[in-house]
Amino acid sequence: MPLDRTSHSLPLELARVLVVDDDPTSRLTLQTLLQASGYRVDSAATAAEAVEKMDDQQYELVLSELQMESPEAGRQVLAYAQCMDYQPATALVNSESNGNADCSRASVLIAPQDVPGLLGKVANLIALRVTRRVRRELRQCKN
After folding, report:
1. 66-125: per-residue pLDDT in tens?
2. What angle do CA 2, 4, 6 make, to 5 degrees?
3. Rounded CA separation 44/103 (Å)
4. Where are the domains of the chain?
5. In angstroms, rounded to a whole number, what is the distance separating the alpha carbons of residues 119 and 139?
6. 13-142 homologous superfamily
7. % of the chain with per-residue pLDDT over 90
8. What is the pLDDT of residue 105?
9. pTM, rounded to two decimals
10. Are the C-beta atoms of 30 and 23 separated by less than 8 Å?
């Protein structure tokens, strides 16, 4: 009788992403797109909800709209994420169709209208985070 290898296989661990946006349409669109691409996605509608989720879960990437309940809410979410022990990659999402949001201080800006570009940037951000984490662990092993 042949072995049933499917029952013994380990589940594939995909990257967990947090999407933060107060616009339900933008949030759901981005969440659906990322889930269809294989990511595990949680979403938050406010900065406070995002903080609570980051305290409860570890994320490889946190994507936040710049302006939500306040003009600086998105930056505050990303600043909080960067202080987490697990150090997720972070990026601002520009869901405005005209692209005129003031994102001059953002290190990475993702525009959901460019689907291939968005998926490429998400993958690159997660890969960069993994590289930083491995380097940090290697340094700790040397000490």
Report:
1. 888 888 899 999 999 999 999 999 998 876 544 444 444 445 666 667 788 888 888 888
2. 150
3. 20
4. 13-142
5. 30
6. Response regulator (3.40.50.2300)
7. 45
8. 41
9. 0.77
10. no
Spatial contact of 108 and 121, defined as CB atoms under 8 Å apart: yes
Mapped onto helix, strand or coil, the DSSP state of residue 96 is: coil
84 in Cβ contact with 120 (< 8 Å): no
C-alpha distances in Å from residue 83, one per residue of 26, 68, 79, 89, 107: 26, 20, 7, 11, 16
Q: What is the 3-state secondary structure (H, E, C) of 4-35?
A: CHHHCCCCCCCCEEEEECCCHHHHHHHHHHHH
Tell me whether residue 125 is exposed, middle or buried, using C-beta atoms within 10 angstroms of its C-beta: 0 to 12, 13 to 18, 19 or more. Answer: buried
Asked if residues 42 and 86 have their Cβ atoms less than 8 Å apart, the reply is no
Q: Which tokens belong to 59?
A: 């994320």
Token reading at 12:
């594939």
